[in-house]
Amino acid sequence: MPAPATAVLRLEQVTKTYVMGDVRVEALRGVDLALQRGELLVLLGPSGSGKSTLLNILGALDVPTSGRVWFGDEELSGADRDRLTEFRRAHVGFVFQFYNLIPSLTAKENVQLVTDIARDRTDGLEPMSPSEALALVGLAARQDHFPAQLSGGEQQRVAIARAICKRPAVLLCDEPTGALDVSTGRLVLEALDSIHRELGTTTAVITHNVAIGGMADRIVTIADGLVHSVRHNEQRLGPRELAW
Ligand SMILES: Nc1ncnc2c1ncn2[C@@H]1O[C@H](COP(=O)(O)OP(=O)(O)OP(=O)(O)O)[C@@H](O)[C@H]1O
Ligand SMILES: [Mg+2]
């Protein structure tokens, strides 16, 4: 049965078991979760609960052991590697705890790499220019700086610009503030919040920080490989209002 039109991505009874020699880890044990178009979802849960595994399956960096994954009405589970690569390239922006910028390229060139790759996409959406993407994260003035000339928070904002320049259908962030102090982390959250407001990008953010849940439309808590609770925020807070 096709996914409802409002879900950009949907997991249906997804499990993931890692087997390493004699050790089996059931990282996900039957997850149902839909990422609704335009929402900002925060994923909370203790270390080892399966959050990264879940995000990686949503973004087709990894495949489930069982269960189904839908992108709109297309079933991704069962798709071949080439299709999954194409899906990621055209539709998914990733942001990780560590920024993974190329040190020998400037901020603008780091973003440019992705816009060049995204230009071959098949759905007709033009990527934004690197300058435009960097302006959206508040780094218009730092385009020609190399990563070593930027603070950790600025580097993370370059990574966010790089993730969104191709106008992805979903932006998936795995502990984007995990390596940052509170005030720098807040600037990164402001960048995510303004992208969400201005571009309407469907966004999922993994965090250990319960306070960050305040800026979400929905907070999903994962425990021991299962969705433990789903909570809607009546009123979203701005990053500056979070009690963090
Ligand atoms: N590639 C892998 N091979 C084997 N086991 C793995 C692999 N990736 C994750 N695991 C295991 O699966 C479980 C869930 O891991 P996952 O990384 O999804 O947790 P997490 O909630 O993101 O934790 P953290 O908050 O520490 O990042 C853990 O027990 C982990 O050790
Ligand atoms: Mg993780």
Description:
The protein is an alpha/beta fold and 244 residues long. It has a single domain (38-63, 81-241), classed as P-loop containing nucleotide triphosphate hydrolases (Rossmann fold, 3-Layer(aba) Sandwich). Helices cover 28% and strands 28% of the residues. It has helices spanning 51-58, 81-91, 107-118, 130-136, 152-164, 182-199, and strands spanning 7-20, 23-36, 40-44, 66-71, 74-75, 92-95, 170-174, 202-206, 218-223, 226-232. The strands form 2 sheets. The protein has a 6-stranded mixed sheet, sandwiched between helices. Helix 4 crosses helix 5. The chain is globular. Adenosine-5'-triphosphate binds next to strand 1, strand 2 and helix 1.
Distance N terminus to C terminus? 42 Å
CATH topology name = Rossmann fold
At the fourth CATH level, what is the homologous superfamily?
Answer: P-loop containing nucleotide triphosphate hydrolases
Bound molecules: adenosine-5'-triphosphate, magnesium ion
Task: Name the overall outline.
Answer: globular
Class from secondary-structure proportions: alpha/beta
Total domains: 1
The CATH architecture is 3-Layer(aba) Sandwich
Rg, Å, rounded: 17 Å
Q: What is the ordering of alpha helices and beta strands? A: EEEHEEHEHHHEHEEE
What is the number of strand segments? 10
Major pleated sheet:
6 strands, mixed
Q: What percentage of amino acids are in beta strands? A: 25-35%
Mean pLDDT: 93
Taking pLDDT < 50 over at least 5 consecutive residues as the criterion, the unreliable ranges are none
